[in-house]
Specification:
Elements (H helix, E strand, L loop, with lengths): L1 H27 L9 E8 L2 E8 L7 E3 L5 E3 L7 H36 L1
Antiparallel strand pairs: 1-2, 3-4
Length: 117
């Protein structure tokens, strides 16, 4: 029972960390032409949080050939920085909630050990 709580909390911490990294990457590439915003979706799984990272496509990119023969996209990035700031705040809240769960689990285990000692 205690192990399941730890696993769920650690899984949630990892999901929150991934959400933060993806949002930071989106903000860093907000002005990069052709960049497609990425998002992390989470759902409760059997042994913790299941996460999936996917690109969010809003428009079909138009491609052009540069003088060097490379294909490049002329479409602007579809990243909304204000939306990413909200995602960062949500990731922070998710991290804090799972950290609280981990601390509560740790305190519970400590009390059980105190009773048994």
């Amino acid at each position: 029972m205690v192990n399941t709580g730890y696993n769920a909390a650690i899984s949630g911490l990892q999901a929150a960390s991934l959400k933060l990294r993806v949002s930071a990457n989106n903000v860093a590439n907000a002005n990069t032409d052709g960049y497609q915003r990425q998002q992390v979706t989470t759902q409760a799984g059997t042994y913790g949080v299941e996460v999936k990272v996917e690109k969010v496509s809003t428009v079909e990119p138009t491609n052009s050939v540069q003088a060097s023969g490379e294909l490049r996209s002329d479409a602007p990035s579809n990243v909304d920085v204000a939306e990413e700031l909200l995602e960062i705040k949500a990731a922070k809240n998710l991290f804090e909630a799972n950290l609280k769960t981990l601390n509560t689990n740790d305190n519970m285990l400590g009390r059980i050990l105190d009773i048994e000692a």
